[in-house]
Specification:
Helix content is 29%, strand content 16%. With 75 residues, it is an alpha+beta fold. It has a two-stranded antiparallel ribbon with strand order 1-2. Strands 3-4 form a two-stranded antiparallel ribbon. The longest helix is centred in the C-terminal third of the chain and has 13 residues, at 52-64. The chain binds zinc ion.
Length: 75
């Protein structure tokens, strides 16, 4: 199973290793630096704060291109 590394939308410093397929299935992944949880569940969104927009774009990207590394950053 492939993985992707994304910049943490909460602290913009940590790199979160995710498995896009698992993320789409509801699996949560944690930032190693700030421990923010990256997940598609609504309950995790408040923790992401201002990263919500970036995360939302990421989610769309993952939905459309789950087989590519998502290393993009949208500020
Ligand atoms: Zn972080």
């Amino acid at each position: 199973m492939f993985t992707s590394i994304i910049n943490c939308p909460a602290c913009n410093q940590g790199q979160i290793v995710i498995q896009p397929y698992m993320l789409l299935q509801g699996q949560a992944f944690s930032c190693p630096l700030c421990a923010a949880k990256l997940a598609l569940h609504h309950e995790s969104k408040p923790q992401l704060g201002k990263g919500l927009d970036a995360f939302d774009k990421l989610r769309v990207q993952l939905s459309q291109k789950a087989d590519q590394n998502a290393s993009t950053r949208h500020e």
